[in-house]
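Students often ask why inverse folding is considered easier than folding. One informal answer: many sequences map to the same fold, so there is more than one right answer. In these notes we will look at a single instance of the problem. The structure comes first.
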C-alpha cells in the first residue's frame, strides 16, 4: 500500500498558484494605496503599519509555536492581515493599540479557529471590531487633515454664527470625517434651529467638489478611507489577475449605490448621492480587499451574489440608521456568519443529474 488516498474538504480546485503567491500579490495590489497614504499622512502611516504588521507576525509565530505547528509567517497571510488592519484605523491611533488589534485578529479570529483556511471571520475586520469596542474614542476621534486636503468640509463652512448651538454644530461637522459629518447633519435636521444649516452641510457633502476630494483622498479618515482612487486601481488588479471574483465588488458597490441613490437623500426618493457613499468610508477597501477574501466568502457564483448584496444592504442600513456612521466592517463580519449556509443552499446541480 505505497499509494495513499487523501480526503479533503471541497472545493477540489487545483491551480498553479500557491497561498504564498496569492497573499503577496494581494499585498502588491495594496501598494499604490499604501504609498498614497504615506504621501497624505507621512510617517504616521509608516509607524501604524509597522506596529500592525509586527503585532500580526509575532502573534502568528507565537501561536504556531505554542500549538507545535510549522511556523509560516513567511507566507504573507499574517503580513496581509496586519496591513489591512492598518488601513482600518486612524493615522493618529496609539501604536500599542493597533498592535493589540493585530494580536486579537491573529490569535482569536484566526489561530483559535485552526489557522489559515479555517477561520470564519475576516481576521483584519475582527481586529477592527475589537478596537472599536475596546477603544471607541481612539477609533473615532483625533482626525487630521491629509496633506493638501481638509477633513470633511471646507473650513469656510464653519463660518461665525451668532447662535452658539449653530456654531457648535458647524464646528463639529467641519472637524469630522465625511460620514461622521453626514450622520451629525442628518440628526440635526430634526432641530428647527439647525435645520437650514444641516441642509446646507448635506448639500456641501454631496457637492461635486466634496465627492471629487473624496475620490482623490483629500479628506480625513482612516488610512483606507482616504485613497479611493488607488484602492480602485488595486482592486482592478485583483480582478484582472482573477484573485478576486468580480461578482462580489460589483454586487456590493452596486447595491450600496442603488440604495443610497433611492433612499439616501433628504428630498424624497432618488435624491441621494451614490458617488459620495462609494468614495467615502471604507467601502472601496471592503468591497475589493475584505469581502473577496477567499476563506470567508462563498465558493459558488450565486452565493457570492447573495453575499455581496447582503453586505450592501447591511452597509446602507448601518450608515443610514445605525449608531455608527460606517457599516462596512460590521456588514462583512455579519455576512461571514452566513457563508456556510449560503454555500449549502447554492450548490450547483451535479453534472448529469435530473431533478424531478
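Output (designed amino acids):
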Amino acid at each position: 500500500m505505497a499509494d495513499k488516498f487523501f480526503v479533503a474538504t471541497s472545493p477540489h480546485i487545483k491551480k498553479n498558484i500557491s497561498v504564498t503567491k496569492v497573499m503577496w500579490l494581494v499585498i502588491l495590489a495594496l501598494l499604490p494605496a499604501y504609498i498614497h497614504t504615506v504621501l497624505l499622512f507621512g510617517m504616521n502611516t509608516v509607524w501604524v503599519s509597522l506596529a500592525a504588521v509586527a503585532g500580526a507576525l509575532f502573534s502568528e509565530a507565537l501561536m504556531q509555536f505554542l500549538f507545535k505547528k510549522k511556523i509560516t509567517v513567511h507566507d504573507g497571510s499574517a503580513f496581509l492581515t496586519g496591513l489591512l488592519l492598518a488601513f482600518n484605523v486612524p493615522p493618529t491611533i496609539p501604536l500599542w493599540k493597533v498592535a493589540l488589534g493585530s494580536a486579537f485578529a491573529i490569535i482569536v479570529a484566526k489561530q483559535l479557529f485552526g489557522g489559515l483556511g479555517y477561520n470564519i471571520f475576516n481576521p483584519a475586520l475582527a481586529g477592527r471590531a475589537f478596537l472599536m469596542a475596546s477603544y471607541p474614542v481612539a477609533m473615532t476621534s483625533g482626525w487630521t487633515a491629509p496633506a493638501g486636503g481638509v477633513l470633511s468640509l471646507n473650513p469656510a463652512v464653519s463660518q461665525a454664527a451668532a447662535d452658539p448651538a449653530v456654531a457648535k454644530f458647524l464646528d463639529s461637522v467641519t472637524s469630522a470625517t465625511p460620514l461622521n459629518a453626514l450622520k451629525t447633519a442628518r440628526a440635526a435636521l430634526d432641530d428647527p434651529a439647525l435645520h437650514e444649516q444641516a441642509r446646507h452641510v448635506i448639500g456641501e457633502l454631496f457637492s461635486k467638489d466634496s465627492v471629487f476630494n473624496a475620490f482623490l483622498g483629500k479628506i480625513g479618515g482612516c488610512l483606507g478611507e482616504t485613497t479611493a482612487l488607488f484602492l480602485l486601481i488595486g482592486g482592478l488588479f485583483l480582478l484582472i489577475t482573477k484573485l478576486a471574483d468580480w461578482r462580489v465588488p460589483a454586487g456590493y458597490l452596486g447595491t450600496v449605490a442603488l440604495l443610497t441613490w433611492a433612499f439616501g437623500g433628504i428630498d424624497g426618493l432618488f435624491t441621494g448621492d451614490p458617488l459620495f457613499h462609494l468614495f467615502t468610508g471604507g467601502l472601496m477597501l471592503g468591497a475589493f480587499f475584505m469581502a473577496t477574501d477567499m476563506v470567508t466568502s462563498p465558493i459558488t457564483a450565486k452565493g457570492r451574489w447573495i453575499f455581496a448584496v447582503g453586505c450592501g444592504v447591511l452597509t446602507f442600513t448601518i450608515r443610514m440608521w445605525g449608531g455608527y456612521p460606517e457599516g462596512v466592517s460590521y456588514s462583512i463580519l455579519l455576512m461571514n456568519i452566513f457563508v456556510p449556509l449560503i454555500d449549502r443552499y447554492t450548490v450547483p446541480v451535479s453534472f448529469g443529474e435530473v431533478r424531478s
